[in-house]
Specification:
The protein contains 9 helices and 13 strands. A hairpin with a 2-residue loop joins β12 and β13.
């Protein structure tokens, strides 16, 4: 059994980081051509739901089919980076060092000028979020307080990205998919456009934060590097690269001073 596997969700071939423990995972592989990666349509899977569940079909596959001590999920163009060297994709060894004293590695929060409930309403269909709230109240009522708290905030950890012990993620998946499958059975999205049809992915980004809050897990925040604009093999580069690097160094210093390492 491997100690740590970091799965890179992708729907196409890409330049895979030549780094120990990183494994490309073809999500939505159902009825698709083989692109040479591990696929999410083997074993117990929901690969056919990818147009609606996005990278969650990969998460479900990891939950049901992967056996390792630690597991992570990132994207083919989004990776966790280093606090002291923004732009460099973090190694699994550094991740394991962090997880000696933290429960879950998460992205730095995405911030908004409005609260999360309003932001969802501005971008998607608020009725969907309210249906999810009702489902949580019915099957996981102990999470309602955390749900309301997250919806009142102006930031959340985005992208459905994480690294943690597999047993922690298994518990999260059991909770998450119990809600999403109940939600799936209660909604008609036949008139949704392709973007809004990805609602399960959008909602799960918020629910991940609800779960973190309720479980009182010790989180460690890392910046996320977008490799769409790559200059070197392990560096993301754009015109504002130097500014962004200094920003994350400053943010890390402030977090250390204020003790903002927990969600």
């Amino acid at each position: 059994m491997n100690r740590i596997n970091i799965y890179i969700a992708t729907h196409k071939q890409f330049d895979v980081p030549n780094m120990k423990g990183y494994i490309p995972l073809h999500v939505g592989a159902y009825n698709k051509d083989n692109i040479g990666y591990v696929t999410d349509n083997t074993g117990d899977n929901i690969s056919q739901l990818n147009p609606f569940f996005c990278e969650l079909t990969g998460l479900y596959w990891i939950w049901k089919n992967v056996h390792c001590e630690y597991v992570g999920l990132v994207h083919y163009r989004r990776y966790f980076s280093l606090l002291d060297n923004f732009g460099e994709i973090i190694s699994t060894d550094r991740m394991l060092d962090i997880l000696k004293t933290s429960d879950v590695i998460v992205p730095y929060p995405k911030k908004f000028n409005v609260n999360i409930k309003t932001q969802y309403w501005m971008s998607h269909y608020l009725s969907d979020l309210l249906k999810v709230k009702k489902i949580i109240a019915e099957i996981h009522p102990e999470y309602i307080k955390a749900f309301n708290w997250v919806m009142s905030q102006k930031q959340f950890h985005p992208y459905n990205m994480f690294v943690a012990k597999k047993e922690i993620i298994d518990k999260y998946c059991e909770w998450l998919f119990s809600i999403l499958f109940e939600f799936q059975n209660s909604i008609d999205i036949s008139d949704y456009n392709p973007y809004q049809s990805r609602l399960y992915g959008f909602i799960s980004e918020r629910l991940f934060n609800v779960w973190l809050k309720q479980e009182k897990l010790n989180t460690f925040e890392l910046p996320v590097v977008n490799t769409d604009q790559i200059k070197d093999s392990n560096l993301s580069y754009n015109e504002d690269f130097e500014f962004v690097s200094y920003f994350y160094m400053f943010r890390h210093l402030v977090d250390q001073i204020l003790g903002h390492t927990k969600f």
